[in-house]
Design goal:
CATH topology: Serine Threonine Protein Phosphatase 5, Tetratricopeptide repeat
Structural class: mainly alpha
Radius of gyration: 14 Å
Distance between the termini: 44 Å
CATH superfamily: ARM repeat domains
Number of domains: 1
Order of helices and strands: HHHHHHHHH
Largest sheet: none
CATH architecture: Alpha Horseshoe
Shape: globular
Number of helices: 9
Strand content: under 5%
CATH class: Mainly Alpha
């Protein structure tokens, strides 16, 4: 799958594996967060999204929250906007399922400093939260 995602998108193909073998697959995804190929790094994030469009919800992120956080944290400084957007979308999904867990991640990140990439990801991940606050 790692080689295929360099040529074709692999986030839909990895989801059944995550569902059946979550610990082993997440451990591999953590390794992939440092891969030199942008598509492999993106798959590490995109494959574990809770609400991937056109796909059933996958709650592995909640069940394996510590490892999920490691994946997103490893990618929060990624120089590629392609990866940053996926990490932000992950946070946005997490806000919809478990907002307190999204806040935990953001709070941890901000304690270690701020960068342009990280702040863009946080802003992208919180985009619907701001809309909800204005509506209420």
């Amino acid at each position: 799958m790692k080689e295929l995602t360099k040529r074709f998108t692999g986030e839909y193909a990895i989801r059944p594996l995550l569902k059946e073998h979550s610990e082993e697959v997440i451990d591999e995804l953590i390794t992939w967060t440092s891969d030199e190929n942008v598509h492999v790094r993106r798959l590490a994030s995109e494959g574990i999204r809770i609400r991937l469009p056109w796909s059933p919800k996958l709650l592995v992120a909640l069940d394996q929250f510590e490892k999920y956080t490691t994946i997103l944290t490893n990618l929060k400084e990624d120089p590629e906007k392609f990866v940053q957007k996926s990490v932000g979308n992950n946070l946005n999904d997490l806000y919809k399922e478990a907002p307190e867990k999204a806040e935990i991640i953001i709070t941890q990140w901000r304690k270690t400093g701020q960068s342009k990439a990280q702040e863009w990801i946080i802003k992208h991940g919180m985009r619907n939260q701001k809309l909800r606050r204005h509506v209420i």
